[in-house]
């Protein structure tokens, strides 16, 4: 049995991770939400929910106490493009919020998962086969909060014995909850346009490669890292994980194999393009594979088939 608090349970990752945790564990899986982003439907009906604003330490402590929480999934964050427009808020949520979580975890003996990202790397990290341990000097506030979060989480593990673990997520692709405000969002939006029969205006230039991952693999990674045997972990915050890397031409070409008349034109967004160019092309995830047996199940082909099928049903096409 596990009692889990998911902070950010109605967001891009949280909405699906909360449901998966409820299917896998018998304890209370608490959907933490902020005002204005309350859970609805199955998420609201299938388990407990509580208002937990990550910037409010008392709310985190109350939820942990009330439900005897042993594991916190901290999924509160602003994605990269939004964070560039609201850098102070991104820091407040990403770092002041993380300290709140880590302090509650220290006092109440909780394990903590806080995702990092491909955005934690900057332009001076090796672009292809980016190693687990290398220079991390991001130029975005999103990346600055992710690197700081990794360091802070490792510090709490070393100094106070808090069981912190995490992975560096690629761009995540799903047909359930849209991301909103990220640099990799185009790889989700392109499927919606294709299924709706619309011309897709791509905000990222041809030839710009980034790591991407299908949501079922990402959810499995988030659970498997927290279940891993701690004696085998040489790293904690955070593990590179990878499954596929492509540029807009490659994903558009893959969609055309299934929807031959799909059309894409370029309307490059300078902010997102400059962020994308500062990120790696492809991470090396050998350490995750060796230390806790990470292995993705989906590649571009199998993801595309599933995305197009599920989206067509959702959109009634
Ligand atoms: N998907 C995120 C973004 O684009 C990167 O981790 O901001």
Description of the molecule:
The chain has 317 residues and is α/β, with parallel strands linked by helices. It has twelve helices and 16 strands. The strands form five sheets. Strands 3-2-1-4-5-8 form a six-stranded parallel sheet, with helices on both faces. Strands 6-9-13 form a three-stranded parallel sheet. Helix 1 links the parallel strand 1 and strand 2. Helix 1 crosses helix 8, helix 5 runs parallel beside helix 6 and helix 7 crosses helix 12. The chain is globular. The protein starts with a strand and ends with a helix. The model has no long low-confidence stretch (mean pLDDT 97). Bound molecules: serine. Serine (SER) binds next to loops.
Q: How would you describe this structure in keywords?
A:
single chain, 317 residues, alpha/beta, 6-stranded parallel sheet, 3-stranded parallel sheet, globular, binds serine
* Residue fraction in strands: 15-25%
* Order of SSEs: EHEHEHEHHEEEHEEEHEEHEEHEHEHH
Distance between the termini: 41 Å
Helical fraction equals 40-55%
What number is the mean pLDDT?
A: 97
Number of helices: 12
CA radius of gyration: 19 Å
Q: Which sheet architecture does the biggest sheet show?
A: 6 strands, parallel
Structural class: alpha/beta
- Hetero groups bound? serine
Given as residue ranges, the uncertain stretches (5+ residues, pLDDT < 50) are: none
Write down the overall geometry: globular
Q: Tally of extended strands?
A: 16
Strand order across the biggest sheet?
A: 3-2-1-4-5-8
């Amino acid at each position: 049995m596990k009692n889990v608090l998911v902070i950010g349970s109605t967001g891009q990752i949280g909405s699906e991770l909360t449901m998966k945790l409820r299917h896998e564990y018998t304890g209370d899986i608490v959907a933490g939400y902020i005002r204005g982003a309350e859970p609805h439907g199955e998420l609201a009906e299938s388990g407990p929910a509580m208002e937990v604003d990550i910037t409010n330490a008392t709310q985190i402590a109350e939820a942990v106490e009330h439900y005897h929480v042993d594991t916190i999934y901290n999924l509160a964050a602003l994605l990269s493009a939004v964070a560039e427009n609201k850098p102070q808020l991104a820091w407040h949520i990403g770092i002041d919020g993380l300290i709140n979580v880590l302090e509650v975890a220290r006092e109440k003996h909780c394990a903590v998962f806080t995702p990092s990202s491909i955005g934690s790397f900057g332009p001076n990290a090796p672009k292809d086969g980016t190693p687990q341990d290398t220079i991390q000097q991001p130029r975005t506030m999103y990346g600055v909060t992710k690197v700081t979060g990794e360091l802070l989480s490792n510090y709490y593990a070393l100094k106070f014995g808090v069981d912190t673990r995490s992975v560096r997520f690629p761009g995540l692709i799903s047909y359930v909850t849209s991301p909103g405000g990220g640099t990799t969002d185009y790889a989700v939006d392109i499927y919606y346009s294709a299924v709706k029969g619309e011309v897709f205006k791509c905000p990222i230039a041809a030839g710009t490669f980034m790591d991407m991952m299908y949501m079922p693999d990402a959810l499995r990674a988030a659970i498997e890292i927290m279940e891993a045997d701690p004696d085998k972990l040489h790293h904690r915050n955070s593990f590179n994980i990878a499954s596929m890397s492509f540029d807009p031409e490659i994903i558009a070409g893959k969609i055309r194999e299934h929807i031959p008349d799909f059309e894409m034109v370029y309307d490059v967004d300078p902010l997102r393009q400059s962020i994308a160019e500062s990120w790696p092309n492809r991470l090396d995830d050998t350490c995750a594979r060796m230390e806790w047996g990470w292995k993705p199940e989906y590649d571009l082909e199998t993801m595309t088939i599933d995305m197009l099928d599920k989206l067509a049903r959702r959109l009634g096409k």
